[in-house]
Design a protein that fits this description.
This protein has two domains: 2-101, Nucleic acid-binding proteins (OB fold (Dihydrolipoamide Acetyltransferase, E2P)); 105-208, Beta Barrel (OB fold (Dihydrolipoamide Acetyltransferase, E2P)). By secondary structure, the chain is mainly beta. A five-stranded mixed beta barrel has the order 1-2-3-5-4. The chain has a five-stranded mixed β-barrel with strand order 8-9-10-12-11. The chain is globular, with a radius of gyration of 16 Å. The protein is 7% helix and 50% strand. It contains two helices and twelve strands, in the order E-E-E-E-E-E-H-E-H-E-E-E-E-E.
Length: 209
């Protein structure tokens, strides 16, 4: 199909690989890069994020990405299938200020349909999108353990005068940030993940403070 110029905003944990999302550098539209690996729901392997010179793609890189097709997925309409037989090519580095010029923070009543950590499949289909960039206040980092005792990073924050609590973080850059760290303002990329027990959980895929 050709290639796109892609500004990488999230490189977050997804199964054994990464969830890689960002914006079309020309149009500002959302794009989530996926592979044909159905077992991992299209996660991008680390080997597919290596430039020809051996360097790994990083957040806020502007990249030429070879693609095969647009997936037209109902739940994640931003999905674009990449051509893993070809290298991605680094163009230049961006800043969050560059991002906001192309794709300003989105303002809606709620983040992805409601103020809770998950939504139903029916609600996901009604939304028509699964990625959003928002500006929030009073972002609190929480380091907790799940039911299996495994460490998890979660956040509480305020958006549009509503308090959001216990939203899971998949931005690995914040896994070791001290519990209780508070940021007055932050930009978040929030994504709807794959289904789990008939619920679609929201993930903070990237945090910019």
């Amino acid at each position: 199909m050709g290639e796109i110029t892609f500004l990488l905003l999230t490189k977050s944990s997804k199964f054994s690989g990464y969830c890689v999302a960002g914006i079309d550098y020309k149009s500002g539209n959302w794009i989530r890069l996926i592979t044909e690996d159905l077992q991992s729901y299209g996660a991008i392997g680390a080997e597919d994020l290596i430039y020809k010179n051996g360097r790994e793609c990083q957040i806020l890189d502007i990249i030429k990405v070879p693609i095969i097709s647009v997936s037209n997925d109902i739940l994640q309409p931003e999905n674009v299938l990449i051509d893993t037989s070809k290298y991605m090519h680094f163009v230049e580095k961006a800043t969050i200020e560059d991002v906001l010029k192309i794709h300003p923070a989105e303002i809606r009543e709620y983040i992805l349909g409601n103020k809770y950590p998950y939504i139903t499949e029916e609600r996901v289909k009604q939304l028509g999108y699964s990625l959003t960039l928002v500006k929030v206040n009073n972002l609190l980092i929480k380091q907790v353990a799940n039911l299996d005792g495994q460490p998890k990073t979660k956040v509480d924050f305020t958006y549009q005068f509503e308090r959001y609590e216990n939203i899971s973080v998949t931005d690995y850059r914040f896994y070791l940030v001290a519990n209780g760290t508070l940021y007055n303002e932050a930009y978040l990329v929030v994504s709807i993940g794959t289904p789990y027990k008939n619920r679609y959980y929201k993930f903070v895929s990237a945090i910019y403070v």
